[in-house]
Amino acid sequence: MRGTSSFLIVANRLPVDRVGDKEWRRSPGGLVTAIAPVMQRRDGAWLGWTGAAGEELKPFDHEGMHLIPVPLSGLEVELYYEGFSNATLWPLYHDVVAKPTYSRVLWDAYRAVNDRFARAAADAAAPGAVVWVQDYQLQLVPAMLRKLRPDLKIGFFLHIPFPPAELFNQLPWRNEILEGLLGADLVGFQRPGGASNFVRLSRRLLGLQNHRNEILMEGRTVRAEAFPISVDFGELDQLVREPRVLRRAKEIRAELGDPEHVLLGVDRLDYTKGIGQRLKAFGELLDDGAIKPGEAVFVQVATPTRERVDEYRRLRNDIELRVGRINGEHGVIGRQPISYLHQSYSKEELAALYCAADVMVVTPLRDGMNLVAKEYVACRHDLRGALVLSEFAGAADELRQAFLVNPYDIDGLKRAMLAAMRATPHELARRMRSLRRRVATHNVDKWASDFLTALESGEGVAEEQLTA
Ligand code: GDG
């Protein structure tokens, strides 16, 4: 049995998925890639749920990472995870694009599970350790943990948007959530707007003083700041130079009938992603005759997610109805304008899809960042390919050379999709070069090291400098 750790990640999920009965595989995604080396360097540990309800496992090691499972019962998965996290906070923090559920039973479960995570972290942390808490499922952990272990350096990063007062104020437990986050020394957001919403709410709801982005809380300062997350640019850039990935990209185009334009969407099947809007726009382009039959194919990968939450079941029905209608009206035997895939793919297959796509269509109604947009850019060293990107994705702050759209404006979306299809190779290369420069220099390693440097070097401002 090993002792405590000087560096801890606390997240809803452990960074591994089960394969078969006994084996584990590292989960895909930049967060793990960025953090794994830091964990190895610092003898760190990662606390989280295994993904299986009712499972109680001892801590174990996987690929140089020390993993500490936090158990959840079946009822807790329903109330804390599917309930308060994904039926209350998720829609509330995403502009209320779906109606949030406010229920005291869900809140009680959220609090109880956060308390369990905080206790597990308090037990696992060495004196003076750095603890980095991740995301909306665990917003109460920073304060709970500080109470148990005032010696720790606590950071928190929110991967989704942090809403303005007009929306946040709906939450019956708004003060408790703010107080929970304020237990951290540093609270990170995707966009500067999230940080300023947080500072403003702390002032208005809790009456706290601040100096710019530093809030005075019980004699400590809490910093709120934006750290836009990114992807592992180098890894993707390498991967798409592999001959087998290029071969697969060619094969995909051939399987689609070698149309002039391949458009692509890759999302979890989530109502925040604007999948319906982009399919509507594509369908209308076919109706209008702006796209000729056989000229373009839209590939939509819609990865299964949160399938037991009602709103997600309804969304799946809506999307599948829309796909069916468009394919029914515009397809011919053996060829359909939308290739809809409700499945998960390997990282390599996704990379091949990115290479095969002329136009990547990313149209969330609200999104913390959106890594798919950055992954597409990282995969296009050929400087071909166009990115259509919603201005409501955090990524739009950085990816200014994309074809930026308001996804609620279907005519605007149609115009942008057409412009992306019709752009000259010269214009595409100019845009892509600038997009790539940004993602290459602001990759996921920079995100993790910027956050940790800010957390560890954080110095509060003197009290007399604070303004109300
Ligand atoms: C949250 C925030 C923020 C998708 N399908 C497959 C697959 N994916 C991968 C993508 C991408 C990731 O999942 C999705 O990341 P996004 O950023 O697009 O969206 P969320 O899942 O909503 O993530 C978001 C993010 O956290 C990080 O802070 O950017 O705003 O909502 O990496 O490639 N990966 C594989 N197979 C699939 O079928 N292997």
From TrEMBL:
InterPro entries: Glyco_trans_20 (IPR001830)
Gene3D superfamilies for this protein: Glycogen Phosphorylase B
CDD domains xrefs: GT20_TPS
Domain of life: Bacteria
Pfam family for this entry, one: Glyco_transf_20
Family classification: Belongs to the glycosyltransferase 20 family.
PANTHER family according to UniProt: BCDNA.GH08860 (PTHR10788:SF106), TREHALOSE-6-PHOSPHATE SYNTHASE (PTHR10788)
Name used for this protein in its record: Alpha,alpha-trehalose-phosphate synthase
